[in-house]
Amino acid sequence: MATTEITEAGFEQTLTENDIVLVDFWAGWCGPCKQFAPVYEEVSGEHPDVVFGKVDTEAESGLASAANITSIPTLMAFRDQVLVYAQPGAINSAQLQELVTAVKSLDMDEVREKLASSQNPDQN
Predict the structure, then answer these.
(1) Spelled out in words, what is the top-level CATH class assigned to the domain 4-123?
(2) I need a labelling partner for 3 at 20 to 30 A (CA). Which of 27, 53, 93, 108 fits?
(3) 59 catalytic, yes or no?
(4) pLDDT tens digits along 77-95
(5) Domain boundaries, the chain
(6) Global confidence as pTM
(7) 34, pLDDT greater than 80
(8) Phi-psi region of 58 (alpha: psi -120 to 50; beta: other; left: phi over 0)
């Protein structure tokens, strides 16, 4: 599957309609973004069950702001609408493959349990 442009209007729908969504926040003037783009595109072709989205932070400044993007490229990974990874900086193909594998292997019941306990520390 090729990468998909994601806009602010379609962001939530993309998350709700797909189990795993990776999002690359980038800009045309960003050198590291340009270096990361072919890696992202290549790895996307190896995982048809994962949505590889791209958000142009210049065109979608509201979405970038809502996602608290302060450095680009920033890569985020969502599984079952839960943000499970967010980190600025370009990564190589092997690292991106590892990330996709890790996100696929997450026990989401455990993730939700940890999220709930961190948000409600009094219940532990």
Answers:
(1) alpha beta
(2) 108
(3) no
(4) 999 999 999 999 999 999 9
(5) 4-123
(6) 0.92
(7) yes
(8) alpha
